[in-house]
Design a protein that fits this description.
Blueprint: H1 3-31, H2 33-58, H3 64-114, H4 121-137, H5 139-182, H6 190-228, H7 234-244, H8 250-267, H9 269-298, H10 303-340, H11 348-359, H12 370-373, H13 387-395
Helix pairs in contact: 2-3, 2-5, 2-6, 3-7, 6-7, 6-9, 6-10, 6-11, 7-8, 8-9, 9-10
Length: 396
């Protein structure tokens, strides 16, 4: 066989084995997707809260457990306060808008009966009867869907508990957990992997901070647009947009739909269309400007890589894929560049922990310098520094 064909075949069967191995890994992950997603979400939350815990523990001499407790309680209180404030303002605002909603419903009814459709009571009753008949015929499917939704709610609650406890233990013993995984590797590989994972963790912290900035810009854009259009509940709407921006696709869709609905109920169709244009403009700016440029610069990724990562993650794993694609790519990029560049050899962090010898360890003994690895071959070496090894060899 020609050499190019043999070379292509060698690459081909190795590539197929790698693809098969990755397929098995993804299949196993799909069986424990709830556990994997909970751990990944906990990792993102930990990267957000860990700097605060470190500040309380190192600079203010707060015990580690107390620092974790203060940070978690403050985080939960902040999120709960934001949701509570937004919920209360929405409740009060919807109560004020109820009369306008009733007027809008009456206008829709008048358009149905007196507009171009010219519907009658018999037509409406027929539609209702057909709907009830369809519901009765699909009662089994509806019941199964309700049961599946109940199961989904149970899984969500389980995932929330898993995420909460994982965050606690990562904040308390994150370093020890990392060292346990690193110590599973050969001794020579530990300094490099420790430094690489530390750099990867730094990239993850940067990602979370930039994601908060992007969410804040989204909330400011939609909230200010609603405020200048005279849409009620602009402030709680901005809070909901900020929280929803952390959930790709679904969060933006729900909060944007809520903004348009408020504009429709309060100010009419024209105002709702303008609000829709503002929501779409903000979301497009986030997808094509904020995410690629700001996020790419923060995590050392090209803007095209960020766009492709989000699109590919969405196609592979849906919403979780869109949420974790960029941080995973950022961490992987940092780890690979760190190891490929042998950065641990001059990393002060690695040198401080593992010592200068381990931090600057060269290649394995079989690839070391021949002058250092080869034994002395003569007993009468003219170099003074080799007399001591020659004496020991003679004695042996």
């Amino acid at each position: 066989m020609p050499y190019p064909v043999r070379l292509a075949a060698s690459w081909a069967w190795r590539f197929l084995i790698i693809v098969a191995a990755l397929g098995v890994i993804f299949w196993l992950i799909s069986k424990v997707s709830l556990l994997v997603i909970s751990v990944l979400i906990a990792t993102l939350i930990t990267s957000l809260l860990a700097p605060l815990v470190k500040t309380l523990h190192s600079k203010f001499a707060v015990p580690k457990g107390l620092a974790v407790g203060i940070t978690l309680i403050g985080f939960l209180a902040l999120v709960s306060a934001g949701l509570s404030l937004a919920g209360q303002r929405l409740g009060v605002g919807f109560a004020d808008l109820w009369n306008q909603a009733l007027i809008g419903i009456q206008q829709v009814q008048d358009w149905l009966f007196n507009g171009p459709l010219k519907l009658t009571n018999d037509d409406v009753q027929k539609v209702l009867d057909d709907t009830l008949t369809g519901l009765r015929g699909n009662a089994t499917n509806i019941l199964s869907e309700a049961i599946s939704w109940g199961s989904a709610v149970g899984q969500i609650l389980t995932g929330v508990l898993l995420t909460f406890f994982t965050v606690i233990f990562l904040l308390l013993d994150g370093r020890r957990i990392g060292l346990f995984l690193i110590n599973l590797l050969p001794r020579r590989a530990r300094p490099a992997m420790d430094g690489a994972l530390t750099r990867g963790w730094t990239s993850l912290v940067r990602y979370v901070r930039v994601q908060m900035l992007v969410a804040l810009i989204d909330a400011a854009g939609i909230g200010l647009g609603a405020f200048f259009l005279g849409v009620p509940l602009a402030m709680p709407l901005g809070v909901l947009v900020f929280l929803g921006s952390f959930i790709p696709i679904v969060g933006a869709l729900l909060t944007g739909a809520l903004a348009v609905l408020l504009a429709l109920v309060s100010n009419g169709w024209i105002n709702a269309l303008i609000m829709l244009a503002i929501v779409l403009a903000v979301q497009q700016a986030e997808s094509h400007i904020l995410q690629p440029l700001i996020m790419g610069k923060a995590v050392s990724l090209h803007p095209l890589a960020v766009v492709l990562a989000v699109a590919g993650g969405t196609m592979i794993a849906g919403i979780p894929g869109a949420l974790f694609a960029v941080p995973m790519l950022a961490v992987l990029n940092t780890v690979v560049k760190y190891i490929a560049g042998r950065t641990w050899e001059k990393d002060p962090y690695v040198a401080e922990i593992y010592g200068e010898e381990l931090a600057s360890a060269g290649p394995p003994p079989e690839a070391a310098d021949p002058e250092e690895s080869s034994p002395p071959t003569t007993k009468t070496s003219p170099q003074p520094e080799t007399r001591q090894p020659e004496k020991s060899v003679n004695e042996e």
